[in-house]
Amino acid sequence: MTQQEMEKILEVGTLLSSERNLDRLLEKVLICTMEMARCDAGTLYLLDGDGLSFKIMRNDTLKTYSGGDGRDSGLPKVPLSRENVCALSLLEERTISIEDVRNAPGYNFSGPIRYDAMTGYYTKSMLVVPMCGRDGSKIGVLQLMNALNDAGNICAFSEEMVLVLESMASQASITIQNARYIEEIKELLYSFVRVMSSAVDERTPYNGSHTRHMAEYGSRFIDWLNARSAGERFSPAHKEEILMSVWLHDIGKLVTPLEVMNKVARLLPEQHAAFTHRMQVVRLRAEIDELAGRISPGERQALIEATHAAARLVEEANTAGFITDECLRQLQLLQLRLYRDEDGQEHPWLTPEEYAMLSIRKGTLSDEERAVMEEHVSITDRLLSQIRFSGEFSHVREWAASHHEFLNGSGYPAGLSGEDIPPEVRMITILDIFDALVAEDRPYKRGMPVERALSILQTMADREGKLDGQLVRLFAESRCWEKERPKAEKEG
Question: What is Dmax (Cα atoms) for the chain?
């Protein structure tokens, strides 16, 4: 073996060990072995159940190249039968070197010969090398065709080169096996994360598909940003890290009390029931007072009508998106009304606690309840601190726990502002707010039209200084909430 060939093997080893994407790794394995063997064509198969699947195919003479992008070749699997030379090599775990496939007794080369007849190619020499893992597991097969000598003529694969390629195949096998292990571990992590995220959504009917929608929008948005950029703005690893943060951003809601998270009205159910019962008591007391001659029939009827008006007012205030000044004034008057019980004790029609809840200007949560709800991001941070994220996911905890921070410092939990908020967090925040605005699966409010939601995002950016204005404009332009959207044009 020459010094140059030894250096090439070391170079190939470094190249293979640096690739994490399995599809690109398979492509590199075939390209590198073809370069080392100085051959014209090659195919890489992976064991797939009861057969060998075509993964990467290259033919320099025909200029045909397929694989490397993870898409199915569409070709049928090669059965694991000794009649097929590539399957035979893997089954017997031995390298098969053929000088001329048309003069090779004991082997069936009808497949390559049929391929030649269809394409006009001429297959002569062939080398088939099995790929097995360190534990002896069968991984796949490297099949190389038509080695070329210095003059560019087809020749047999030399014995020395066979040894080199066997060594490379062994190294490639371990690298492929490691890449598969990484993919399996990563998929296990993603499965766990999706289960935990689903557990959050399943706790409440008002959070149904929130995280999944955010992940879908985020994935399309990142792809759109990459498509319009001159270079790759987000690497696959960077994209995965952002999406992992999205999947985990609400994990703290696992321990948020349901009576807070599911609160669809200002009054708690027991408060609403108590008020309704109180109005019934007022009507019954009016009937008793009329029978006792303490009030006239007209006064009794006026009281009954007043209780119904009070009920309508409370019902309106209980579910209103915003409490107007007029509604607040009527609530103030209502809390001044009193009635007497059978012992002569006076009681308010509307208790101070009920008035305090009904007078919440916006939303359904009191200050105390909102503090409990906002605590979910701090809980997210504490929960994720228990997970040892790998280098590729090293920012997940930070990004997931910061999605309620605003650029103007008015967010929570840390009140971060400006450059202290990473671009990834700014993106997650936009996704979170947008889906909350347009969500159709929340029975306490109707989903907002998309253009109205985009207008709110722009206001939060331009007037309030809470969101990244440029990112909001790109988000709106991307239409990433639509499954079918226009392709972004490359910036020149």
Answer: 124
CA dist list (Å): 269 to 216, 264, 314, 453: 35, 10, 13, 30
**The tokens of 202 are what?**
């399943």
**Residue 245's closest CA among 380, 119, 372, 373?**
380
Give pTM, 2 decimals.
0.69
pLDDT at res. 135: 84
pLDDT tens-digit readout, 19-72 = 667 778 788 888 888 988 899 999 999 999 889 998 899 999 999 888 776 666
Three-state secondary-structure class, residue 37: helix
Q: Which residues pair with 96 in a beta bridge?
A: 128
Residue 488: band (very low, low, confident or very high) from pLDDT cuts 50, 70, 90: very low
In eight-state DSSP terms, residue 53 is E
Which SS3 state, helix, strand or coil, does residue 155 take?
strand
Cα 239–chain centre separation: 9
d(CA 466, CA 402): 13
When pLDDT is cut at 50, 70 and 90, the band that residue 490 belongs to is: very low
The encoded tokens of residue 57 equal: 């195919």
What residue type is assigned to position 286 of the chain?
A
DSSP 192: H
**CB-CB neighbours of 245 under 10 Å:** 26
- The candidate with the shortest Cα–Cα distance to 461, out of 428, 422, 432, 426, is 426
| pLDDT recorded at residue 19 | 66
What average pLDDT score do residues 135-161 get? 92
Q: Omega of the bond prior to 205 within 30 degrees of 0, cis?
A: no
∠ CA(57), CA(63), CA(65), 5° rounding?
30
- Provide the token pair at 151: 């003059």
Decide: 457 and 197 in contact? Cβ < 8 Å.
no
Length of the chain (residues): 492
Query: 400-452, pLDDT tens digit by residue?
Result: 999 999 999 999 999 999 999 999 999 999 999 999 899 875 545 567 899 99
Could you tell me the CA-to-CA distances from 225 to 173, 233, 373, 423, 476 in Å, in that order? 36, 7, 33, 13, 12
Going 298 to 304 to 306 to 312, the CA torsion angle's sign is negative
How does DSSP classify residue 157?
Answer: P
Q: What angle do CA 211, 259, 336 make, to 5 degrees?
A: 130
- pLDDT tens sequence across 205-224: 666 688 899 999 999 999 99
